[in-house]
Amino acid sequence: MSNATTDRRAQLAAQTVTLVVALAVGILVGREFCAPQPEAPEPEESDCPAAAPEIVEFCPPEPDPEPPEPIADPPDPPPRQVESQGTSLPDDPPPATPEQRQRLLAWARHQSVTLQGCQRDRGQTYRFAVTLYLNDDKHIESLVISSDEELGTELRSCLQERILQWDLPDDVDPPQREVVFRLSL
After folding, report:
1. What band does 52 get if pLDDT is binned at 50, 70 and 90?
2. CB 180 within 8 A of CB 111
3. In which element (H, E) is residue 178 found?
4. Domain coordinates of the chain in residue numbers?
5. Per CATH, which fold does 98-184 belong to?
6. Which residue, of 80, 105, 107, 133, has the fewest CB within 10 Å?
């Protein structure tokens, strides 16, 4: 180590010892050398009377108005007597098999290319469900487009017009006359 470093350390040690000694002397002996504290003057008597406590009264809250008596619900009408004609409803068609569903979705995906020509915002992705109602000849009679997001009137009418032109191929034969699938544009 160099002499400068040792001298600096010795100097710091001497300053620290001096500070500690001065602090100890100040705490032990310092009170003798402090000026005495002045005594607080006693309050003079004044001509003002002593303040009396002020009493503040509050009005009690007004009682809540009487709640109106609830109106009684009208009695339930007696159940209607329906005479059975002895005919039962037709059986539901069997649900689509996974293979039929796969063919239907592939057909819808293939047909969705025709929807690309509808005017829409290019940066926006539209997701919607299509419900097709088929007649007995497997032609689309009507359809409903459902979406959580707002489809413009022009876009919706263009989609409906183009989907109504679709024809189901022979290999796609859904057992039900209501077909539902989802599309994204």
Report:
1. low
2. no
3. strand 178-184
4. 98-184
5. 3.30.1150
6. 80
Q: For residues 97 and 10, what is the distance between their CA atoms, to the nearest angstrom?
A: 95
* CA distance linking residue 157 with residue 134, whole number of Å: 19
Structure tokens at 24: 């100890």
Calpha distance 41→77 (Å, rounded) = 92
Helix and strand element counts for the chain (H, E): 3, 3
* Among 12-16, 20-24, 120-124, the range of highest mean pLDDT: 12-16
pTM (predicted TM-score): 0.47
User: If pLDDT is split at 50, 70 and 90, which confidence band does 121 have?
Assistant: confident
Return the sign of the alpha-carbon dihedral for residues 27, 28, 30, 36: positive
Q: What is each CA distance from 21 to 10, 28, 47, 87, 101, in whole angstroms? A: 17, 11, 56, 114, 95
Which among 172, 177, 120 is positioned nearest to 150, based on CA atoms? 120
Edge-to-edge strand order for the sheet containing 127-134? 140-146, 127-134, 178-184
The encoded tokens of residue 66 equal: 């009487």
Determine which helix (DSSP H) or strand (DSSP E) holds 153, and give its type and residue range.
helix 153-163
**Residues 90, 94: Cα–Cα separation, whole Å:** 12
Can you name the residues that pair with 128 across neighbouring β-strands? 183
Region 81-105: mean pLDDT is 69
